Amino acid sequence: MTTMVLAAEERTTLGKKVARLRRTGLIPATVYGKQVGPISIQIDAKAFDDIYRKHGRAVTIELQVAGHEPLTTTIHAVQRHPVSRAILHLDFLAGA
Question: What pTM was estimated for this model as a whole?
Answer without folding.
Answer: 0.86
